[in-house]
Design a protein that fits this description.
The chain is of the alpha/beta class. The chain contains 4 helices and 5 strands, in the order E-H-E-H-E-H-E-E-H. It has one domain (7-117): Glutaredoxin, CATH 3.40.30.
């Protein structure tokens, strides 16, 4: 069981709201492919680590298969190449950290938000 409460990122309105929210607290976007077994493994590992050590960050889940156009919009907005699995950390409307595949992990997120959450 995880205490990582994913917020579904499925519309441009939600994307705009999360950018606005990033001015008051860090925001995580997790880009996930339901057709990729590796993406599922990464998600499971992330949720497992989160259950042991929750982080103070709002977490958004973007299904890149269902919402491919939105996923491309996220890549363009934050000037990162689309990948999955992929994480983006948004602070003050800017992507301050992103990584994919093996770089998607609890420790990377924690390190990226530590300057903010101290």
């Amino acid at each position: 069981m995880t205490n990582l409460n994913w917020i579904e990122l499925s519309t441009l309105e939600i994307l705009d709201a999360l950018v606005e929210k990033s001015f008051s607290r860090p925001v995580l976007i997790y880009k996930h492919s339901t057709s990729c077994a590796f993406s599922s493994v990464v998600r499971s590992r992330l949720e497992h680590a989160w259950s042991k050590k929750p982080l103070n960050i709002d977490s958004y889940f973007l299904n890149v298969i269902t919402h491919r156009q939105l996923s491309n919009g996220v890549a363009e907005m934050f000037q990162v190449e689309h990948q999955s699995p992929q994480i983006l950390i948004i602070i003050n409307g800017i992507c301050v950290f992103h990584d994919s595949h093996f770089g998607v992990n609890h420790q990377a997120i924690q390190q990226a938000i530590t300057p903010v959450n101290g």
